[in-house]
Specification:
Blueprint: H1 2-27, H2 34-53, H3 58-80, H4 91-143, H5 152-172, H6 176-203
Length: about 210
C-alpha cells in the first residue's frame, strides 16, 4: 500500500508540473506561486542529487523528474513573471527578488537537513511548504481575479499528490505533525478546487467570479 501511494503521489505531482508548464506557455504566465516554486526547486534539487549519489528509489526517480520539470517552470517564471508585477518593479528588481527567493529557499531546505537529518527533513519541509503552496494558490487566484495561469487539473492533482503521502507519513508512521499539516493542506486544496470549479461554471454560462469579490 505504501508503494502504491508513493506512485500515486509521484504521478499526481508529475501531472501538476507538466500542466504548469503547458499553462505557463499558453497563458504567458507562471502557474506555480513564486515562493512555492523556489522552495520546490530547492527541495527537489537537493533530494534528487542525493538520490543520484545514494541508492535510487521510486521516490528518488520522481524527485529527479520533478527537478527537471521545475527547470521549465522556472523558465516561464523568468520569461513572463515580470509582467505580473507593478510597473515600478524593474527587470533588475525582479531578478534581485527572484535571486533572494532562491537563496532563501535553498538555505531553508539545508537548515531542515541540519536540524532533522536526511531522513526526516524532506518530510517535514515538504509538508510545510506544501501548506504554504496551498494558501498561495488561493492568493494567486484572488490576485489575478480568476483562473488565468492556473487550471483545475493542477488543483486536483496537487490535492491528490499531497493526500497520498499524508496517509503514508502521517497515518502509517503515526506522525501527528504530518497528519495535521496534511489535513490542513486538503482543506486549502479543496477550497482552491472549489474556486476553480466556480470559474468553470461561470465560463459555461453562469455568472463568472468577478475580481475582488472573494
Amino acid at each position: 500500500m505504501i508503494l502504491f501511494l508513493t506512485v500515486v503521489s509521484g504521478i499526481a505531482w508529475t501531472a501538476v508540473y507538466v500542466e504548469a508548464i503547458r499553462i505557463g506557455f499558453r497563458d504567458r504566465s507562471y502557474a506555480i506561486p513564486a515562493a512555492a516554486l523556489a522552495l520546490n526547486f530547492a527541495w527537489e534539487a537537493i533530494y534528487a542529487s542525493r538520490s543520484v549519489a545514494t541508492a535510487l528509489s521510486v521516490q528518488g526517480v520522481f524527485n529527479i523528474v520533478w527537478a527537471l520539470a521545475d527547470v521549465a517552470i522556472l523558465y516561464t517564471f523568468f520569461r513572463f513573471g515580470r509582467a505580473e508585477l507593478p510597473a515600478w518593479v524593474t527587470r533588475k528588481l525582479f531578478l534581485a527578488w527572484a535571486l533572494l527567493l532562491g537563496v532563501t529557499a535553498l538555505a531553508v531546505q539545508l537548515l531542515f537537513v541540519a536540524e532533522f537529518g536526511w531522513d526526516a527533513a524532506p518530510r517535514y519541509s515538504a509538508f510545510l511548504q506544501n501548506l504554504l503552496m496551498s494558501g498561495l494558490f488561493i492568493a494567486m487566484f484572488v490576485a489575478r481575479g480568476g483562473a488565468r495561469g492556473q487550471s483545475l487539473l493542477i488543483a486536483v492533482a496537487k490535492w491528490i499528490g499531497t493526500l497520498a503521502p499524508t496517509i503514508v507519513f502521517g497515518w502509517y508512521t503515526h506522525s501527528p505533525l504530518i497528519l495535521g499539516v496534511g489535513a490542513l493542506c486538503s482543506v486549502f486544496d479543496l477550497v482552491y478546487i472549489g474556486l476553480m470549479l466556480r470559474t468553470r461554471t461561470g465560463r459555461s454560462g453562469a455568472a463568472a467570479v468577478p475580481a475582488g469579490t472573494l
